[in-house]
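Discussion board: Methods & Data

I've been asked by a reviewer to show the raw model output for two of the constructs in my manuscript, not just the figures. I'm not sure how much to include, so I'm pasting the format here to get opinions. Each protein appears as its amino acid sequence followed by a line of discrete structure tokens. Is this the kind of thing reviewers expect to see in a supplement, or should I convert it first? Here is construct A:
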Amino acid sequence: MIGQYQHNIDAKGRLFIPAKYREELGETFYVTIGLDGCLSVYSDAKWADLTAKFDALPISQARKMRALFANAAKCEPDTQGRILIPAKLRQYAALEREVIINGASKCLELWSPERWAPIEDAGLDPENLAAAMGLPVENVGVKATTTEHLGPEGREEGITAYATCLVCREG
């Protein structure tokens, strides 16, 4: 799942899940505690995968995941595409009104804007992004003299790139 949306939780604790995500999640999905103070939303199939991995763990490791299952909620969107997020989960993720809904590959993440902002800022840092992609960071932010991958507008206007080109991995 990819993309980002922002929606509000209503007075009854319901959150609208965009149709794009509902299609990928299916008719039933699971909301539980996530990493870094967010909530994670899994499709029925991904939840089954997670449960199978849990069941295969030694008891000493499985104990560490108790809170994930204890705080999970099975959700089925209503006719307007909203799900009820239990109060305990809203409290855990500091979700009051505004919610950032992020695609996170195999699941969705639900964030309070205040918690998401510093994580997104760090993720958008060119050096952090290059490191996460396994690219050399020594040329990130260094003025590049090539316009090869800037396209026709860049060549015509003589624009110079100021970041490592992710296509050719050169600065």
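Construct B, same format:
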Amino acid sequence: MYVSKLKVNKFVHDTHITVMTTYINVNLVSSDGVTFSVPMRAANLSKFVSVMTDEYSSDELNDENMEDIPVLRVRSQVLDLIVSFMIHYDIDPMVTIEKPLVSNNIGDVVQHWYAVFIDHMNKDMLYDLVNAANYMHIQPLLELACAGVAILINGKTTAEIDQEFSLTQIV
């Protein structure tokens, strides 16, 4: 795992406050070989990453010879979305999603950024995100993505849901 200390100028758009902080970054490598450098504090939202980084002492975190963390079941396009989610969540944690959902509008359930994040995703990417969030053990992202899927299928007939998920009837 490659870990480096990096000064990052973090700009919080909603409050227009600039904060200068020292972060330890960790590199996540997608299944197609693309590397994403993520602040460890944000990346530790994933239990998958947290377990991989917990075994190192603070002295080892300065060692640039450590290996990257391979995320073998997640394509770069999906990992890019996950990294965006983790970084935003670190700045502005998502509210807990009430179940059952109180509305068919995701904007009524979570903050604006999270609603836009899910609303602008096609269904295939949404399904990939559910699988990746589950694989990486990112509970808030899994709940958000599942809420997106629930809203997508809400009000549909069984036949429409079968068609949506490309299911075939088993007799």
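Answer (T.O., handling editor elsewhere):
This is acceptable in a supplement if you add a one-line summary per construct. For B, something like: The beta strands are 3-12, 17-29, 35-39, 69-70.
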